[in-house]
Amino acid sequence: MGSSSVRRKKKQQEIHVTPPQSLSYDGFSFDITHADPHSRARTGTLKTPHGTIETPNYIFCGTKASIKNLSPHAMRQAQTDIILANTYHVMIQPGADLVEKIGGLHKFMQWDGPMMTDSGGFQIFSMGHGSVADEIKGRNKIDRGKSLLKVTEEGARFKSYWNGTYLNLTPELSIEIQRKLGADLIYQLDECTAYHVDKDYTARSMEMSHRWGDRSLAEFERHHDGSQALYGIVQGGVYEDLRDISCAYVNDRPFFGLAVGGSLGGSEEEMFDVVNMCMQRLREDRPVHLLGIGRIKDVFDFVRLGIDTFDCVSPTRIARHGWALVKGLPGERLNIRNACFRDDPEPLDPRIDIPASRDYSKAYLHHLIKSGEMLGMQLIAQHNVATINMLMREVRAAIKDGTLDQLQKEWLPE
Amino acid sequence: MGSSSVRRKKKQQEIHVTPPQSLSYDGFSFDITHADPHSRARTGTLKTPHGTIETPNYIFCGTKASIKNLSPHAMRQAQTDIILANTYHVMIQPGADLVEKIGGLHKFMQWDGPMMTDSGGFQIFSMGHGSVADEIKGRNKIDRGKSLLKVTEEGARFKSYWNGTYLNLTPELSIEIQRKLGADLIYQLDECTAYHVDKDYTARSMEMSHRWGDRSLAEFERHHDGSQALYGIVQGGVYEDLRDISCAYVNDRPFFGLAVGGSLGGSEEEMFDVVNMCMQRLREDRPVHLLGIGRIKDVFDFVRLGIDTFDCVSPTRIARHGWALVKGLPGERLNIRNACFRDDPEPLDPRIDIPASRDYSKAYLHHLIKSGEMLGMQLIAQHNVATINMLMREVRAAIKDGTLDQLQKEWLPE
Lengths: 414, 414
Fold this sequence. Notes:
Distance between the termini of chain A: 40 Å
Structural class of chain A: alpha/beta
Radius of gyration of chain A: 21 Å
CATH superfamily of the largest domain in chain A: Queuine tRNA-ribosyltransferase-like
Oligomer: homodimer
Strand content of chain A: 15-25%
Number of helices of chain A: 15
CATH architecture of the largest domain in chain A: Alpha-Beta Barrel
Largest interface: A-B, 44 and 44 residues
């Protein structure tokens, strides 16, 4: 069970709260516009108070209330529809009260489109370091017990990497913070279990996450003014019977959207199986988000299972190391630092109508990255975002046309 | 005389070359549009094959063929007219041949406006470190002898910080490299003397720089096709009689433009006096550039002496440390890291019509810089560039209106 410094919750008094039977999400809607007859792939429109997006879509990560290296203008130029910010980072610095005072995350970041925040739990449970790398997902690299101090029925007690103070993230506090941040789509708090926990722990954790879901719903209802919509999270690890229970739980509660969370297993095959288990059980009228997964291959795999939205830091993170995503490359991407690009006059991808993709030579980008020029990271990051947005546009069109297999071969030749 | 590892040139055979009597600069022109009756301040238009700029103007530094953190699009949005690249950095990495192969610096950098390159000499003479800070000017911090190996009549021998190879920058090579880079406005090679050299050294160095000027002119003429225009550089240190000789030299040669170079003294007052000496002697029909000087106060001081163009890395360099230039602040700038900006909802300067200046709160910029987010440096850099461009627009208008004193009080209140 990992680190001994994290005391396991046991024999704790369970906190039961009566959740609302129903919630009105008037400013929001999710409509399925096309369903593929041969898979669970579908297209839809997801309406929020800050605009309507088509699904499947990709949510880009503005971890600390900023997409690394890219302004909202640059994100829009790359045809981005929706972004997210990580509650954990923002609550620690600059803090939710300050963001609320400035007018909420939309105004703070100057992003006027749809926005999501997570609950803040993931980073607490999965990172656990005294200091924090800028962006961390990577579910297998779990090191509990350094910043996470204690998980109780009440919430997760942890130490701020910013100033060393102690904080207790409860379901109620997570919702309160996300209300202050003001994103359109927000999340219940859940416990993110590690891959190697046993079934007994997974089951008890799942039950607690359900109680946390009910507390999140109750807190959400208390101040609900129609400006936000709440997502619930399916738990249950790799165990089908637990996923069954957890899907029934989220299906039954008045969440606007659903997300596949908890451990997705230790391999790509297991991840596919776990998501598949969930998607067979989740009600079909709600948008489903897949947390933190978003390579090009993943998008093709999981839209076929019915996933509507993805998020992943990788498009902007890999750009900082010179990796550019390009349609039609077997490995999805090339490394511009490679010597073969030193004198390559061709652009990254003339099919994409932004200067970063269409106008700059690979030779110039190679030079910028080799020289440590921040402009290089900026241009490749924007190119990667634009590439993913082109991918999602083409995926939506292919679902409607029934040509997803063909499109996958174009993007990922064998 | 500083480091002993740099062997002084002495008893070397002088290399005399017959420079051209005249050169045609058909694609270029410099026209004075207004001359202030009470000072030597003037406005003008400087025409190049890549566009015409109004003067006085400010040339932003793209040291390694990139303005730090800012794309050409962002520079244009900030109303930038002209940029420069440093020949020294570009010749070392990626190299002039590669840039020429890609189509020249304009195409390489995707900047379609007027561009300047320096001779490459300044960095060799003034930096002299085995490794190189990203951008270095700061004329008083001269440490000769680490990368500079030897100055001879032929040229300056030095060691590449990039790969340790030995290079000999001669006047002919500097012109050849700048021809390959293809900027509109280029420079003769000169020896940049340090502040503390004696008059005898300064005089001999000046004479050699004049011979280097003639060799630069001859090499320039050999391949002159009308696409570039050559600037000569006034030497002579702080010595009026030497400045007299050097001004006569550059006035007499067919340079398109002139620049005040060499040691400008050890204090602000001395710098003012040295520039003043030169500006009293330089012919008035050519554009005059002041190398590497460009605080807001400098702009006001030196446009009154007749300077037409400035360059300095500081607007983009200080942005990386959180310093924002703002019109009307006594010290020219504020540091966004200051705790007083933590919850400041106001933008940096609503008078400037770009998001970086007008839309983002200081609180957000404070958060970005405190969190190490590159977007913060990017936004402040663009704001600083836009501020300087607003300064130059207002300076040009004030010269025409005779209101320069009043404008200076608005920008720099006591």
